[in-house]
Design a protein that fits this description.
With 232 residues, this protein is an alpha/beta fold. It has two domains: 9-127, 3-Layer(aba) Sandwich (Rossmann fold), CATH 3.40.50.2300; 134-227, Winged helix-like DNA-binding domain superfamily/Winged helix DNA-binding domain (Arc Repressor Mutant, subunit A), CATH 1.10.10. 41% of the residues lie in helices and 20% in strands. The chain has eight helices and eleven strands. The chain has a five-stranded parallel sheet with strand order 2-1-3-4-5, with helices on both faces. A four-stranded antiparallel sheet has the order 6-7-8-9, with helices on one face. A two-stranded antiparallel sheet has the order 10-11. The longest helix is centred in the middle third of the chain and has 16 residues, at 112-127.
Length: 232
């Protein structure tokens, strides 16, 4: 599998110049084209001029916080993947990042190698070529070519990571999938990923799906998760 990097554009947003410089330098070393911003408003205007493949976005910014930047970008139709940088490591904070359109998060302090690995993993799962199939289970339909998900007649808005996670479930209906299998096949980390990220993203995907019908994703205690209709 090829490693993302050559020519893809990344926007790094943080109000600490040392962090921007370090992250941008590490990403440029991997072959990415990198833009930089120090405030939320600067980030919004930069994306409007030239939408990047991915945004490394600090949660705490001096004017508009990173979550609000993410929400505004999604409301305006921008599809750039978002990797949040945050000092907050609670489940509530992670879910807030998802609601703001985030695809993943890194908690401070972090290593540059981890940031680069997360960026590459996000771009592989959100930008990989799909065969254009329509996957179905019960009243759930995922159209790979159009990148749309419907439950019945209702369109369900998903981030790139949520879409990839649901696709993996749909490719394996009624089969128990362990957290390690999900990490390897959806996140595709090049290092030992934290299984807590799976719990957080499954929880939020489940809430979106269950809002329009009976439960679809079941927790199998001490084993993993299963796409199965009508069970909690």
């Amino acid at each position: 599998m090829s490693t993302p990097g050559r020519g893809e554009r990344i926007l790094v947003v943080d109000d600490e110049p040392s962090i921007v410089d370090a992250v941008a330098t590490a990403l440029r070393y991997e072959g990415f084209e990198v833009d930089e911003a120090r405030t939320g408003r600067e980030a919004l205007s930069t994306v409007a001029r030239r939408e990047p493949a991915l945004i490394v976005l600090d949660w705490m910014l001096p004017d508009i916080d990173g979550l609000e930047v993410g929400r505004r970008l999604r409301e305006r139709g921008f599809r750039s993947a978002i990797l949040f940088l945050t000092a907050k490591d609670s489940t509530e904070s992670k879910v807030a990042a998802l609601r703001a359109g985030g695809d993943d998060y890194v908690t401070k302090p972090f290593s540059l190698a981890e940031v680069v690995a997360r960026v590459q993993a996000i771009l592989r799962r959100t930008g990989s070529a799909l065969p254009g199939d329509v996957l179905r289970y019960a009243d759930l339909v995922l159209d790979e070519e159009r990148h749309e998900v419907f439950r019945g007649e209702t369109l369900i808005e998903l981030t790139g990571t949520e879409f990839s996670l649901l696709r993996y479930f749909l490719l394996n209906p009624r089969r128990v999938l362990s957290k390690s299998q999900i990490l390897q096949n959806v996140w595709r980390y090049d290092f030992g990923g934290n299984s807590n990220v799976v719990e957080t993203y499954v929880s939020y995907l489940r809430k979106k799906l269950d809002a329009t019908g009976p439960p679809l994703i079941r927790t199998v205690r001490q084993a993993g998760y299963m796409l199965e209709l009508g069970r909690d």
